[in-house]
Amino acid sequence: MPVRREVEIEASPEEVWEALVTEQGRERWLDEPDRDVHIEVLDAPHRLVWWWAGEDEPATRVEFLVVAAPAGTRVVVTESEPAFPLATLAASFALVAA
Given the DSSP bridges, would you call strands 60-69 and 47-53 parallel, antiparallel or unpaired? Predict the structure, then answer.
């Protein structure tokens, strides 16, 4: 059953998009170094869908919607299993901005 979560990030949609689509950006917040990411849909700068899997884990589908919000960016994530570290994404921007 899909799980949907949302977070508001104090960063521009462009900054959030870069953190999602680049390997360097993902390394800043994604604490899953052993997972392979395979892009399914890349509709810059608003929608990204990827499949990811760990060595001994089944692949899950993750969809990101990046939406401008008054305080920065709203990110909506829908995943086939609840394993996505969305809070870590938001926290990484706080660390970078400090």
Answer: antiparallel
